[in-house]
Amino acid sequence: MAADDVEMTKEELDDRTMGQLLDIGEEFYRQFERGEIPRLEIPTRSKSNVVFDEDSGVWVYGDKVSSRTANSVGGARKLLRMAYTLEFMRNQIEENRSSTLRELYYLSESWGDAQFTGQGESDRLIEDLEIVGDLRRERLHMRPEEDGATVIGPLYLREQTRRGEREIHCQEDVGEGGYQIPSDVDQVEFLDADAEFVMCVETGGMRDRLVENGFDEEYDCIVVHLKGQPARSTRRLVKRLHDEESLPIVVFTDADPWSYRIFGSVAYGSIKSAHLSKHLATPEAEFVGVQPQDIVDYDLPTDPLSDNDVNALENELEDPRFEDGYWKEQIELQLDIEKKSEQQSLASYGLDFVTDTYLPERLDEMGVA
């Protein structure tokens, strides 16, 4: 996939995508001509097949491959679904339409034997197309159900919409809810980013606390609400802010194993979307907290670790995204104290503690602000 999507016009992107889809269809045709059973080879999507790419600094799929082949009824049906989907995508791009992943699943009800049995099948097929065609679903005019993640801070941008261009300042032109991140972030042009850094926040409650306390204004900070495990569009926006505007990225989450994985997806990518890591992951991102060490230092309110939490932490000790000394120290400490804590537990010291004391001290320690 080309790295210059943001520099191409929509028409150029559509033309390129049509060519990539045609290449997939032509490969099927060549296999038929050679008298071969149609097949596709796709990187195996498993933890054991995720490797560190030294050049890009993110986790990507390795050399193991899985085959989609028509040598069985089930395999033939999978490739038939891909053929129907290729035709649907071609028509959608030609007509300048778009659809959601959910709509694709329901549209297949008219495809006879190619109908999907569940949305999981249609979602996986789109991922297959991304890998085989070396493209992203946004280029196919596919979008997820509305995510609703938002940005607030000193960022001035221009967005391409069906009703034309609009220019928005993400502090002055929005309410406290912020600017809603679109599904295709590459249709957004950054006009000015008068910020010192970007803070990605896991929970809505903490995001609202930072905004109410004026943290974005006092520290010239762009606050990005991740809404839990962040959507692709959110991760793409964060990466672009780092790469194009040279802004440091920090991630602020709860102190539990599931939140550490949120950081991991922002910084290094995820197993499910490892084929897109170079476009979505920001390996320079840093973890600001809440750290297990903070639980001890601030005697924060906590909950006991569940068995699932313990298993997840132990798995993270083996996860290549958490193999450095910092993470091993923090995870081992958490396993030792057997506790977890939320971002909002910092309110035990008052509503202003997080913006007046905790974050300024952590950011200064990290050399960010």
Helix-strand layout with pairing:
Blueprint: H1 10-33, E1 39-43, E2 50-53, E3 58-61, E4 65-69, H2 73-94, E5 99-100, H3 101-107, H4 119-133, E6 142-143, E7 150-152, E8 155-161, E9 164-169, E10 179-180, E11 188-193, E12 197-201, H5 204-212, H6 215-218, E13 221-225, H7 232-245, E14 249-252, H8 257-267, H9 277-280, E15 286-289, H10 292-298, E16 303-304, H11 307-317, H12 325-337, E17 339-340, H13 353-366
Parallel strand pairs: 5-6, 12-13, 12-14, 14-15
Antiparallel strand pairs: 1-4, 2-3, 7-10, 7-13, 8-9, 8-11, 16-17
Explained architecture:
With 369 residues, this protein is an alpha/beta fold. Helix content is 42%, strand content 18%. It has helices at 10-33, 73-94, 101-107, 119-133, 204-212, 215-218, 232-245, 257-267, 277-280, 292-298, 307-317, 325-337, 353-366, and strands spanning 39-43, 50-53, 58-61, 65-69, 99-100, 142-143, 150-152, 155-161, 164-169, 179-180, 188-193, 197-201, 221-225, 249-252, 286-289, 303-304, 339-340. It has a 6-stranded mixed beta sheet, with helices on both faces. Helix 1 (10-33) runs antiparallel to helix 2 and helix 3 crosses helix 4. The model has no long low-confidence stretch (mean pLDDT 86).
Q: Are there runs of 5+ residues with pLDDT below 50, and where?
A: none
Quaternary structure of the protein: single chain
- Number of beta-strand segments: 17
Secondary-structure element string: HEEEEHEHHEEEEEEEHHEHEHHEHEHHEH
Just name the CATH architecture of the largest domain: 3-Layer(aba) Sandwich
**Domain count:** 2
- Indicate the CATH topology of the largest domain: Dna Topoisomerase Vi A Subunit, Chain: A, domain 2
What is the residue-mean pLDDT, rounded to a whole number?
86
The span between the termini is 35 Å
Please give the count of helices: 13
